[in-house]
Design brief:
The chain has 322 residues and is α/β, with parallel strands linked by helices. Helices cover 32% and strands 17% of the residues. It contains 10 helices and 10 strands. The strands form 2 sheets. Strands 4-3-5-10-9-6-7-8 form an 8-stranded parallel sheet, with helices on both faces. It starts with 5 loop residues before the first strand and ends with a helix.
Length: 322
C-alpha cells in the first residue's frame, strides 16, 4: 500500500493515505486510492447504493457510504492469512454505480449490468458494497454472460423466490433469476446459514430442486466451520466462483443494521474463518450486501460489513496472484 500516493492540489505535497490518520482525507473503501480509470487496475471496489428491491425495511442504500467510513479502520495486513492484498494486486475505489432511474428497479438492473460489463471487459475483478441483495443479479448478468459461474452464498435466506408483489426483481429473487437465465450454475452453488420462519417454501424448494447445496444453520452448527469450508470447496470446485455475503447471515447481535434480521445466525469470528478457508479458489468477484446503517446508529453493522469486505479483498488479491 505504500506505493499508493497522491498529490495535494493545494500544497503540492505527496500524500500516502494509508499513513495519514484514519479520520483524515476523503473516505474511500479501505483508504484505497480513488481511481480515475480502469487502466492498470486488478480489483475495483464499488458501491451500489440502492435498496429499491427490499420487501420490508429500507436503508441499505446508505450502505456503501457508511461502509467506506467504517473501512478506514482496516489495515494493510491480514494477520490470520498473512496476506497484504495491496502487495498482490492493484486495488482502487472506482466510486458508485450511477443509476439515473431511481424509481425503476428493472432500469436500475440494466444500469448495474452495463456498468459491470465494462468492469469485466477491462479484466478487473469487482468487489462491491450494497445496497440490497437484488444488485447481485445484474452483476451476474455481466460476470456470467460467457459461462455460468459458481457461488459461495452466506445468508439467512436462499433469495430464490419467484414473483413477489407483482415483480420478479427484488432482493429475494437474484439467484432464481440467475439460474433461470443460465448465469449461475446451481450444481456449483452452496448457500450457507439458511434459517428463519417461512410463509411459503417456494424459494427453498427452488434452491434444492435446481441442485443448489442448501446448508441450514443447524447443520452449520453441527458440522463446525472446518467441515463447512470443506463442503463449500467441494461444491464450487476449481471453476470461476463468486462470493456473496449478506450480513443477515450473521446473528443480529453482530449485525443488527439489516433489513431482515434472523436470530440464531453465524458469529463474526466463524464468518471470518469461513471466508479465510476459501483461500485459493478461482474467485472472480464478491459482494457484501444488506448493510442498512439507519437501523444501527452504533455503526457496528457497517464495521462488520467493511471487515468482511476486507476478508474477501484478501481472497481476490491472492486469486490474482496465482
Amino acid at each position: 500500500m505504500s506505493e499508493y500516493k497522491k498529490t495535494s492540489p493545494v500544497t503540492g505535497q505527496s500524500i500516502e493515505p494509508m499513513k495519514e490518520p484514519r479520520f483524515a482525507e476523503i473516505a474511500t473503501f479501505m483508504r484505497a486510492p480513488l481511481a480515475e480509470s480502469l487502466d492498470d487496475l486488478d480489483i475495483a471496489l464499488i458501491g451500489v447504493p440502492t435498496d429499491l428491491g427490499v420487501t420490508n425495511r429500507p436503508g441499505a442504500r446508505h450502505g456503501p457510504r457508511e461502509i467506506r467510513n467504517a473501512s478506514s479502520l482496516m489495515r494493510i495486513f491480514n494477520v490470520a492469512t498473512n496476506i497484504n492484498p495491496y502487495a498482490l494486486a492493484r486495488v482502487a475505489d472506482v466510486g458508485d454505480v450511477q443509476m439515473p432511474s431511481r424509481y425503476d428497479l428493472e432500469a436500475q438492473n440494466d444500469c448495474i449490468a452495463s456498468y459491470y460489463g465494462k468492469i469485466v471487459a477491462a479484466g478487473v475483478l469487482p468487489l462491491s458494497a450494497g445496497g440490497d441483495h437484488s444488485i447481485t443479479y445484474p452483476i451476474f448478468r455481466a460476470l456470467g454472460a460467457e459461462r455460468p459461474i459458481g457461488m459461495v452464498h452466506i445468508d439467512a435466506h436462499c433469495d430464490t423466490w419467484g414473483e413477489f408483489a407483482g415483480s420478479k426483481y427484488h432482493h429475494g429473487a437474484p439467484f432464481r433469476l440467475s439460474v433461470e437465465q443460465g448465469l449461475l450454475d446451481p450444481a456449483r452453488t452452496i448457500q450457507i446459514g439458511i434459517r428463519g420462519g417461512q410463509n411459503f417454501m417456494d424459494g427453498i424448494e427452488f434452491s434444492q430442486n435446481s441442485g443448489m447445496r442448501v446448508m441450514f444453520m443447524d447443520e452449520f452448527a453441527d458440522l463446525g466451520v472446518d467441515k463447512v469450508i470443506a463442503e463449500a470447496r467441494r461444491i464450487v470446485g476449481d471453476g470461476p466462483t463468486y462470493i456473496s455475503f449478506d450480513v443477515d447471515g450473521l446473528d443480529p447481535v453482530y449485525a443488527p443494521g439489516t433489513g431482515t434480521p434472523e436470530i440464531g445466525g453465524i458469529t463474526t469470528l466463524d464468518a471470518q474463518r469461513l471466508l479465510r478457508g476459501l483461500l485459493g479458489l478461482n474467485l472472480i468477484g464478491g459482494d457484501v450486501v444488506e448493510v442498512a446503517p439507519p437501523l444501527d446508529p452504533s455503526g457496528n453493522t457497517a464495521l462488520v460489513g467493511a471487515t468482511m469486505m476486507f476478508e474477501i479483498l484478501c481472497l481476490l488479491a491472492e486469486s490474482i496472484e496465482q
